[in-house]
């Protein structure tokens, strides 16, 4: 452990010989068994790419309101595009943030008999006033997808499976990049930037603007700060990886506290998940690890589905009730 509330792991250890790679895998297993969160250095994201992404994010949120609303997510049945402050909810409560959601660039599915979750497949909405955003966002996603794959292979070996275990079961990944700005608030009480939640997928790699705090992770019944570390991503696992390990790995509650006005904060999470039609079967853990598996936390009001598309659709319908009401009223009615 570091002096911080989360351990720090260095991805370059995987290329530093067998002993270093084994230590990395052991530390990875320990971190995600104990708390489900860690800092990751050595990702290969250059300072130049980091600066370009940060600059592009700031430039987007400085656009005139009309330019941002031209790609508002209520225009997208696939939940892509811009969400104004107050347009997303966690646990039914309004989040104090604005953002743009970017997923895989695909054609919309037009088959009326396709599964409901295929409604998430479709094109992104890109701001005409900022044509350079697409290039840097694509470069960012491409690099972090490689980092996520390296982590999954390390996890597989650390859990007693073959290295390709997750590769074989993932299919074409369903990714989501969020570029978020948390505006400052002068509310007398602490404002929910994002409410307490567990991620519904597999892996999240989070970049946070240097010097800007707000992320908190729940450990032992307490909320602990997870401030940004220069050159590091904050990584956490989601409910599907907890489910695939019978609760040996832990998906952890976390939240974001909104900054105090006039400060604000940029945060860029990248979610790396299986194909919408993929299932993550349970890993047959070695006996010593299986004995430490806690079982999966179950909430009847928020079930975990082994089919990722069902998890993703459930999350999007809940988080964006306005988009759901406009484009998916039939799904909303069927779930009530």
How is the secondary structure organized here?
Elements: E1 8-10, H1 18-34, E2 37-41, H2 47-62, H3 65-69, E3 81-83, E4 89-90, E5 93-94, E6 98-102, H4 133-158, H5 165-170, E7 174-182, E8 192-197, E9 203-208, E10 215-219, E11 222-225, E12 233-237, H6 239-244, E13 254-257, E14 265-273, H7 287-290, H8 308-319, H9 321-327, H10 329-334
Helix pairs in contact: 1-4, 2-4
Describe it.
With 336 residues, the chain is α+β, with helices and mostly antiparallel strands. It has one domain (8-334): Jelly Rolls (Sandwich). Helices cover 31% and strands 20% of the residues. The strands form 3 sheets. An 8-stranded mixed β-sheet has the order 1-2-12-9-14-7-6-3. The model has no long low-confidence stretch (mean pLDDT 92).
